[in-house]
Write a structure and sequence with these properties.
By secondary structure, the protein is an alpha/beta fold. About 35% of the residues lie in helices and about 10% in strands. The relative contact order is 0.05.
Length: about 675
């Protein structure tokens, strides 16, 4: 019994010993990792060090975690980290996710002058962040969109990294931004139209950005040095003219020969060291392209034949309401024809197919027969447009415009161009011009999404603008007579239109050519967006225009000789004249045909009288006179004496700034804060 009891005691002691070892080991592990006992902010800092500090430069340690607020580079407020400034330590790791982004009270984060690699992690949880310096590192990937959800951010520096991709348009959501540097990366794409009035430091130089720089009030404050070493950028801000981008399938005859290069070009290729097998490669690629285009056209042709037959079969059995008829329904378009007409007579079918095939070979068959503009995603097809219920919006000088509701409930605006007005424009010319116009993107332009042509049928597809036209806003409807717009509304609309026109003029050296109030639409936020731009250059002149449309035209582009119907082409200066007429229409509420030609003093009196008829009093004389002076400057007869749209925009912005300062001063006087 004694031996048995002794063994039991020894066994119990052994168990207790093993238990103590396990507890000690568990305690040591917990102490070394800090998973449970460390404060959350200390854990976040240690987790960052583990991945970022490969050289052990940071003096962060779990042993001193109870005083993490004393760690070098860390500043706290009420035991929460509010600043992390770790600079110039040559950290060679990565910036791991779910580390510093867990510091929910962080105000300032600076990791500049290190050697951190990899992508920038999601920082959207740092809702209190105001300052972010990640410059002079080796970060790769694109600019994370999560940064643009940090609405308190005032300073953002991502310069001197290896970032690629475009600058997201959502950067405009940072409406408190004061300091922005994205220079010395590998960013591409276009410059977004920045509109932060608070922005005072800005640099996007030494990237691969391209296209015209938007003429916004914010961007125009900065010098050329903010845009340097972006070879593709152009426009007024960098003093470089923009030129059209040559489409891949339809190179300009002035720049690239249509067929084989002349001997001089071949000699130049040899002198420049072009590979000898380049010609064979070109022939091989061209053959593949021809085969691909022919196959796609054949598939399209069969689809259209089937669609026409099905449409005819159901045409008599399906009645559509007045506003629910298809875009190509003859009862809607009057004298419209189908895009491709196939007779049911079998004897003529083969000949018809042959003619259609010949015509379709000249149409670029991509995106299911609709050519979508650069950067646009195909979300509908030509067949969907043909099936869409359509509402006639209006008939203009260039064609008929419809509101189309597609099967997927998407609403678009479709402009069916008048074949007679474009009779002198070849398919190649139309294609090349649409490539340039379709690339224009600005907040004050209605974006063109896609276009289509086959024989004499040409369609343009735009975003639908829900709030009507400026014409309706100024003149009201038949049932209600509108009053002249308030002075501040006139100023805002004038600035919007001037922004859009300035962009057109400095982008690819294009012109609008048909500016009038019915071609200015109101966007979702009632911003003024210019429509029907850059089409008049393709049109054959006509006398069948109403007096108001004629009144917008500058004297130099009106008909010069009644016998030979000779017209001059629209120009940037004629657009300026049209803008002056539009501005006068804004101020007075009168149709352009009612605008008199008066001396300055008489004109001021007339404008005031038009507003007194509705308002009873005029309390904004000085402000009206400033805008009226801009309108009269634009409307001078000599094109050489008119300002450029860039100069007009500057005038309007200066008026806006002066009025803002004046209103602010009046508020100070009333509140006694001055």
């Amino acid at each position: 019994m004694k031996i048995h009891q002794f063994l039991v005691v020894i066994f119990i002691i052994l168990l207790l010993y093993l238990s103590s070892l396990t507890t000690a080991s568990s305690h040591l592990h917990s102490h070394s990792t800090g998973n449970l006992s460390l404060p959350s902010d200390a854990s976040a800092l240690l987790a960052f060090k583990h991945k970022a500090d490969l050289g052990n430069k940071l003096e962060f340690s779990a042993n001193t975690s109870f005083r993490f607020c004393k760690w070098k580079g860390v500043q706290c407020s009420e035991k929460k980290v509010v600043r992390v400034i770790i600079e110039g330590l040559s950290l060679g790791g990565t910036f791991p996710s779910n580390t510093l982004s867990n510091l929910d009270q962080l105000r300032v984060l600076s990791l500049q002058n290190n050697s951190l690699t990899g992508p920038i992690p999601d920082l959207s949880s740092l809702s209190n962040l105001k300052v972010l310096f990640l410059d002079h590192n080796l970060f790769t990937g694109s600019i994370p969109v999560s940064i643009f959800t940090l609405h308190r951010l005032k300073t953002l520096d991502l310069s001197y990294n290896n970032l690629t991709g475009s600058i997201p348009v959502s950067i405009n959501s940072l409406n408190r931004l004061y300091y922005l540097r994205l220079d010395s990366n590998r960013l591409n794409g276009s410059v977004p139209p920045l509109n932060q009035s608070s922005l005072h430091v800005f640099n996007i130089s030494r990237n691969a950005l391209s296209g015209p720089i938007p003429v916004t009030k914010t961007l125009s404050r900065f010098k050329t040095t903010s845009f340097l070493d972006n070879k593709g950028l152009c426009g007024e801000l960098v003093h470089k003219e923009c030129r059209p981008i040559q489409p891949f399938f339809n190179p300009s005859t002035a720049d690239v020969p249509k067929k084989t290069p002349p001997p001089s070009s071949q000699i130049e290729e040899l002198r420049s060291g072009a590979p000898l097998d380049r010609k064979e490669n070109k022939i091989h690629k061209r053959s593949l392209l021809i085969i691909g285009v022919s196959t796609a056209c054949l598939v399209l042709l069969c689809s259209l034949i089937l669609l026409v037959l099905v449409t005819r079969k159901h045409k008599n059995s399906k009645k559509l309401g007045k506003t629910k008829k298809g875009i190509f329904d003859p009862s809607v378009t009057g004298n419209a024809e189908a895009i491709i007409r196939i007779e049911e007579d079998n004897n003529e079918l083969e000949e018809k197919v042959k003619r259609v095939q010949e015509g379709m070979q000249q149409v670029i068959c991509k995106s299911g027969s609709l050519v979508f503009c650069a950067g646009e995603v195909q979300v509908y097809s030509l067949e969907m447009l043909m099936r869409a219920s359509a509402e006639l919006l209006g008939r203009g000088t260039m064609g008929i415009t419809y509101k189309a509701v597609l099967d997927n409930r998407l609403i678009v605006c479709v402009k069916r161009l008048d074949g007679g007005r474009l009779a002198g424009t070849s398919q190649e010319e139309f294609e090349q011009h649409m490539e340039s116009v379709g690339g224009l993107r600005h907040p004050n332009l209605v974006p063109m999404k896609a276009y289509f042509q086959a024989r004499q049928e040409r369609l343009l597809v735009y975003d639908y603008q829900p709030n009507g036209s400026l014409f309706s806003l100024i003149h009201g409807s038949k049932s209600s007579r509108a009053k002249p717009l308030h002075w501040t509304s006139c100023l805002k609309i004038a600035e919007d239109v001037a922004q859009g026109l300035s962009y057109i003029h400095q982008a690819w050296r294009l012109v609008h050519g048909n500016l009038k109030s019915s071609n200015v639409l109101l966007g979702s936020d009632f911003e003024a967006c210019i429509a029907d731009y850059c089409l008049s250059v393709l049109a054959v002149p006509t006398d069948d225009e109403d007096p108001d449309s004629t009144a917008y035209k500058a004297p130099e582009i009106r008909k010069l000789n009644h016998n030979n119907h000779h017209y001059r082409q629209a120009s940037a200066k004629s657009d300026v004249y049209s803008f002056g007429v539009l501005l006068l229409e804004l101020l007075t509420g009168k149709h352009p045909s009612e605008h008199p030609y008066l001396m300055p003093d008489d004109m001021i009196h007339w404008v005031k009288s038009t507003r007194e008829d509705h308002d009873g009093i005029v309390g904004e004389d000085t402000k009206l006179e400033m805008l009226l002076e801009v309108a009269m400057t634009c409307r001078v007869s000599s094109p050489e004496q008119r300002p450029t749209m860039w100069q007009v925009l500057k005038m309007i912005q200066e008026i806006k700034e002066a009025v803002t300062m004046e209103d602010s001063h009046e508020i100070d006087l009333l509140t006694g804060t001055s």
